User: What shape does this take?
Amino acid sequence: MFTKLTLKNFKAWRDRIDVELTPITMLLGTNSSGKSSLLQALLLLKQTAASPDRRIHLNLGGDEVNDYFNFGHFNDVLTHGASPRQFEIGFQFQRPPGSQPDGKQRVDSGEFTAIYGMTSSGAAVIQELILCTGPHKFRAVRRDKGAYSLFVDEELQPRGKSRAYAPERSIALPAEAIQLLAMEGPPAEDISLAIRRELEGIAYLGPLRRKPERDYVWNKSKPGELGIDGAGVINAILASALLRSRDEGAGQTIHDVSSWLARMGVADRLEVRQLGHSTRYEIVVHKDGVAANLRDVGIGISQVLPVITLAFFAQPGSTVLLEEPEIHLHPLAQSALAELFVGVSRQRQVQFIVETHSEHLFRRLQTLVARDQVRVDDCRLYFVERNGAAAALKQLQLDAYGRVLKWPDQFFGDALGETREQARLMFERQKRARPA
Assistant: This one.
């Protein structure tokens, strides 16, 4: 689980910010305020860590198949007018107990910080990399001609200097540097592995999800990821429904998804039907005694289906990034999303970082705090706004009853002002309607 995100001179975030992250973190604010950039910083590191080129320092994208975003040029990421021309991304993480993917990881918490500059060819390059875990701290600092000096803890003199010590994929020290630091024990290598696994554990669903088809071909496999637009969701549901006889527990996903669709009031259950003896299948939605193809029901079901599926598809201990999960949902269903995030986070140790415009989702989370179904310390609410050309972040402090201690101005519009104006106009019209 990510516990802190640090940015400086990254897109709209000019001044350094330290964003505390919890099992449920909600980002609210106006359009184009900088909310999505907070998620994109983590996705930029994730696609860099997955790059086939280990020598790359930052993968700004361009591969439409394998990359999450095309960030463009270094200057498109750097805050306009930043001096020096560098930006910083950092995070801290803490693995929940019992959530190690193979039980062998030796680093349960750590910290990553990278400061990026630009080469003469326009490529992003690490100026300084800091990896920390427990009492151990390792630094790689770029010198002249692309050489890097290696420092341990707070030492003033480097252990060595060489171009061979250049970091790999932003997150790792190369084998030559690991060998030089071998006297420090395993942490120098283990912290890079732990950071990589934390980034690999990120699952992302964007605001634009794929529209449903009338039927689907299934090749009897499970998807590795659901995709930025939820393209793999149907395969996950088909695998859950059709592999249950061969894979213990495989049918749980479709059961959980159906249960939450019912709780949201948008469907009673889902069913998978094979078309004849072919390899094609359709998804049938049952509601109020009527069965209909997924293509023929309201768009809201197909748009929320990836959100619910991802909540149960993500591995325990992973982090789910969501943009506008409430899109095309009616208010009651939007509210139920808060219960989904709280329940899954508690039961499956999945972290949710959600960018939303939904007042109903926000209000239900307040109610869950008041019901004592989620601790105040387990959720963070932030309001993002523009301060001129730069983004600004305000934490919404909740008390034990879910009340916001200090509201930002016109947080969800001017509701009181609208009510006041409606009353004024009503009285004016009634006055004009009275006989003279």
Summary: Residues 8 and 16 are 4 Å apart (CA to CA). The chain has two domains: 1-201+318-436, 210-313. The mean pLDDT is 90. Residues 210-313 form one domain.
